[in-house]
Amino acid sequence: MTIEGLQPDRRRVIIQLVGLQRSGNHAVIGWLGSLFRSSEHLNDLPFDFFSHETNRAALMAREQIDCIVCSFEDSRRRGASGALLEDVAFLRPEDFPGYDCHIVYVLRDPYNCWASRAKAHEDGAPLTSSPRLDQFLENWKQMAARASNSEATTVIFNRWFRDQAYRMALCEVFGGSYSEASLSDVPRNGGGSSFDGYRPSYGEILGNAGRYFSTDFLKRLARNPARYLRKLSQPRPDGRALNVESRWEYLLKKAHHRPIFQDIELRRHAVDIFGFYVDERGRMVTGQGS
């Protein structure tokens, strides 16, 4: 019961989201923000962000924001070793009295995740993660082990993408009001979808003129002008219609990606969590899992 003229008690939410690049992090982040009246996303933060009292105090000062999502990726500019879970400092709920705090891992199956990363790196997209498969495999296996054993919440991207009931159950964990308003959006982070790109509207281009006329962007444009002209000539992609679960077929074309299909430990994790693996002959093998 509330007293007239006073604001009802409002629980605010801080989410630390940890995921390898091209795991669907930004799609999930956009959806999380849509569950709340007001939200803010702090992207690709330094791995030691939560170790500093000034950063924690700054988050607490954002009293008008219902949900703050702090995201951490396997960015080479953020951590020295490249081992995401070993380098990231995790939030402590006791540092944020009055807030609901969540540590969230986002995990996408390894074959589609690596295919999207490989395509992005090979096309010159502005990813900051390592292009090395061995580093990806080490990080992914650590994420999978954490997903199986941790009390923290893991968002299985493949299920989140296709299963409304799963999204609704996650909404119950985080609070807010269920929404699908963001699901058609394709975030522009990292150049958008590795396969379908990101096509800004002309209004977005005019509104972000500084970005599109920056030296960094003009250099990327000069390296691959056809890529950007193709983006502008195509219709804007619909996030709901992306073919995100068959990206792995791209890897079959190039021999240097073959080790991902031969890794037995990876297969075990993939079957346990996602219900399938892809073998070295390019066959999807299904089993028990999500």
Summarize the structure.
The protein is α/β, with parallel strands linked by helices.
How would you characterize the overall build of this protein?
This protein has 290 residues and is α/β, with parallel strands linked by helices. The chain is built from 13 helices and seven strands. The chain has helices at 25-34, 53-60, 84-87, 110-122, 133-149, 157-162, 164-174, 202-207, 209-212, 215-223, 225-233, 259-262, 264-274; strands spanning 12-19, 39-42, 67-72, 99-107, 153-156, 276-278, 284-286. Helix 2 links the parallel strand 2 (39-42) and strand 3 (67-72). Residues 1-9 and 189-198 have low confidence and may be disordered.
- CATH topology of the largest domain: the name is Rossmann fold
Main sheet record:
5 strands, parallel
Which structural class do the helices and strands define? alpha/beta
Mean pLDDT: 82
Report low-confidence residues grouped into runs of 5 or more: 1-9, 189-198
